[in-house]
Write the structure tokens for this entry.
Amino acid sequence: MNTHSCLHAKAKHVFGGIKVALVASVLLTVMTCASSAAEESPYPHDSLAPLYKKAADFVLSQVEQPHKGHVLVFGAGEGRLAHELASRSEYTIIGAEEDENKIKAGRRTLDDADLYGRPVTLQRQSLDKLDYRDYAASLVVSDTIITDGTCPGSAAELFRIIRPHGGLAIVGQPPGCPKPLKRETLTKWLDTAGLKYKIIENPRDGLWAIVRRGPLEGAGEWTHVRADIANTACSRDTRTSGNFKVLWFGEPGPRIMVDRHWRNTSPLYKNGRLIIPAFDRIVCSDAYNGARLWDLEVPKASRIAMMRDAGWLALDDKYLYAAVGSRCLKINVVDGSVVDKFETPDDKSDWGYLAVDGDRLYGSQQIHEASYLASNTGRGAEGNQLGRGNERLIITSKSLFCKDAKNGELLWTYSPPDTVIANVTICVGPKGVHFIASKAPKVVADKKGRVSLADFTDGPNEFVVKLDKTTGKFLWQHQHEFPYRHVMHLCYANNIVLSSGCRSHEKDFWYHLRAYNAADGSVAWEKDIPTHFGTRDTDHGKQDKHPMIVGDMVYLKQGNFELATGKPLGFKFKTTNCAECSASNVNIFGRNGGVASTWSLAGDGSSKPLNPTMRPGCYTTIIPAGGIVMMPSFSAGCTCAHTIQTTIAWVPE
């Protein structure tokens, strides 16, 4: 394949039609790359040259920096506007043009200057029906409007390409164009498509329309390891149902990921950004088209064994928070820069639990290096514990605290004497912070911060506790003996605090649910639930499931139950497999038969594969949020017969 055709194939990978096959031979990746445009433009120094410069400057002045992602030039001409944008930004730019002669001329010009494909590519397309996937670009502009003063193709088709939640179309002319664009021409074109827009018209900037795409209606989010601060494992997305088609696929691939058996923390999603925790690094991609937005190396960051620990990442509108050692990094979600670092209250303990809720940052203090880290865990080491059965170790903390997320000011601490807190159980409701604590002598005396559930729940020493989330004031605690041995979780929804866990019993393993009234901690109901698979197969994590709370129902692999009463509601997974599941308001996603699969909550419990040749990782991998379904390549290290390893997103058909 020559250079030209190779670069053309790369552009096709990102912007290609939905008929592109997902096979290993076409897993080509377009990476956002820095512009290598020459200082001198390869295009003529004619009367249009300063107009293109003004147009590019205006467009970039309206877009959030850094200028990264995918740009579509809707009516690209010979690529002059595309080149001006490339020379000022790090965008990957695709030009769509109907005139084949203009495409050929533009390709020759850019290729002669050794600029074609780095990062500009030109393609022949009908501007009434583009052969590109939905949401392919974060920015759409038009060269044709500048030169001809006319609006090309269909404005509805232009809008289809803009990615949701902040994607922009900026179309118009700077002043002085030889064929002036009339305002009524521009507004009529946009009105015909039913678009909302903002008009900017003045002597300095010229005439422009800005179309900003908002979030998709019903789109959910996934901001913490178990979806939210309440640990519901449900994104609340209402769009992710029915049949799915591939939206995009590509980097990051498995090379930089944590081994799937180590059970990495989950990906996160909010406001169009997909946060991917890799091996001691964090990757941020555009969730709707896969463009790499930033990549941050964070040494000794990757915590593993998430079924027994708290997640180390938390996401809000502006910042990603990352617990690393004794610090919490405050990371700008736009460019990946670390803008602040907050210490634990005693500056000696590691930062354990992490959650963000508005302007409040919640954390816990745990013994140094209590959490398992990918960087110091070998295959088969204690941190994996795939075959330990009832001897699973959980990570514990000595105290809880709350800081101001704006400046790190300490707002309160809770340090109960002779008590340890199970990190994996900490959850935050509308008014309280809830967790399970233990006063068992063996765990209180522990010096590593890792204790077995058998020791944690030994005798009448474990308690469910609630603190006031604003002040840290102790509100209530109730002593209850828990039968948990494999896993133990706590989550909140609808004024119910739900504990769940699992133990082996004879030839099977059992789950136990106990629901508490959040107001006073009284027990609302409890239930023992045997697995219905007829096997005690605990070697691949089939017993490690976290409950999913969807509306007023609780879902486990054994079925669903009414959250308020525990009443069985009849849903049964006809088959499930190892790895953790995730939920939206309409579907459950996980691994079945070894491959990425989905179960409709309105169905009969049968699953459908998202892709019959792709495997999720061994913990929470599939994220249904933003109106789409995302799956990073968390199957890294897999030796099973599912060889396609790529980050991928699906969209409902």
